[in-house]
Each structure stands twice: as C-alpha cells, then as structure tokens.
Amino acid sequence: MSISVGILALQGGFEAHARILRALGAEPKEVRVPADLEGLDALIIPGGESTVMTLGIEREGLAGPLRELAASGRPVLGTCAGMIMLDRDHLGLLDVSAERNAFGRQLQSFEAEIEIEGLAGGPVHAVFIRAPWIREHGGSVEVLARVDGHPVAVRQQNLLAVAFHPELAGETRLHELLLAMASAPGGDQTPAVSRSE
Ligand code: GLN
C-alpha cells in the first residue's frame, strides 16, 4: 500500500511537493481542515508566507490536530515557511527559534549546493527564497546543514525542517527520507546522527 502524505495546502507551494511524492510512489493529500489529517502516514508543511499560514491554521482550528499528528511520531517535513511554522513561536513542535527573512532583503533568493548530514549521494541543490535560518536551538535538535555558519537543516526525532525548497530543484532525497521514516516499523524515533551521551 502506498504511503499517504498530507501537504498543508492553506497557502503556498504545495503542488511541487505533490509531484515529487507521486514520482516516488507515495500518495499526496491536500490538507485544509482537521478531517484531512485522518489516515495520514506523514505530513509536509510547504513554503509560502508564515504570517498567512498562521492565520489559516487559526481559522481552520488546525493547530491542535497538527500537534497531535506530530506527537504520534509520524514524520513531518517543514520547508522554508514550513520550518518557521514548526518553531517555538508558531506550532511549538521544534525546539528552535527561526529567524524570518534571515539572509537579508537584498538577498531575496539564491541557490547553493549543500551537504546534508545523513543524506548520501552528494550535496543537495538548495533553492533559498526569502529564507529563514535557525537563530537558536535546544540540545535535542540535530543540525544537519549550515550556510555561513547558520543552521538551515535540522532534525528532532520525527521532525525534519529545511530553510530551503528542495522541491523546486528536482531534489527528491528529503522526501525519500520522509517516506523511509514513515515506513520504519513503529515510526523512526532514532536520530539521523548518532550521539554519544
Ligand atoms: N519569507 C517567508 C516567511 O517568512 C518564507 C518564504 C518561503 O517560504 N519561501 O514566511
């Protein structure tokens, strides 16, 4: 049976994620109201405008149901504004503070090749559009990639967040990782990078 992946579709770039998921054999489902979250194996919160997305989540009463889905251990991927939505000041799921439009106004968008910890196959072609970075994070958050010293890809158990748009560059490995986490028995709770504690 194919893996059912919800994409929050209140606003922003959900269609490009849907195309990648279909190409990988998963079943994308647009999420607009809490009932759309039923039966999902994983969730993507796409890029867009975090202020608009916040209003939509409030309007539809989605904050509680989204938190429940994440708490159940099902994997969640946030990209760009999706990373912001997961942070302490928004859904409060990732123990990070995201800084909006962090790369500066003059640098509205850029592309970069970045190595992501735990992703084999060479650097990821990353498209940054008015992107955030992580200003500060707690000890349970693993930093998987940095640009200019600032974290731009992080993982905290079942939650993955990247400051860029993998879906706009034909990059499929983060979606593949999400699907692998969704199909791991009992949900993959293990960190991507082992830590000695
Ligand atoms: N700048 C947007 C925000 O602050 C994010 C941009 C994006 O998702 N590409 O919400």
Strand elements, count: 11
Q: Strand order across the biggest sheet?
A: 2-1-3-4-11-10-9
Bound molecules: glutamine
Order of helices and strands: EHEEHHEHEEEEEEEH
What does this structure look like?
This protein is an alpha/beta fold and 197 residues long. It is 23% helix and 28% strand. It contains 5 helices and 11 strands. The chain has helices at residues 15-23, 50-60, 63-71, 81-86, 173-183, and strands at 4-8, 27-31, 42-45, 76-79, 96-99, 109-114, 124-129, 133-137, 142-147, 150-156, 159-162. Strand 10 (150-156) and strand 11 form a beta hairpin. 44% of the residues are buried. It binds glutamine. Glutamine is lined by residues 47-50, 80-81, 84, 100-101, 129-130.
How would you summarize what this structure contains?
This protein has 5 helices and 11 strands; from the N terminus they run E-H-E-E-H-H-E-H-E-E-E-E-E-E-E-H. With 197 residues, it is an alpha/beta fold. Glutamine (GLN) binds at residues 47-50, 80-81, 84, 100-101, 129-130.
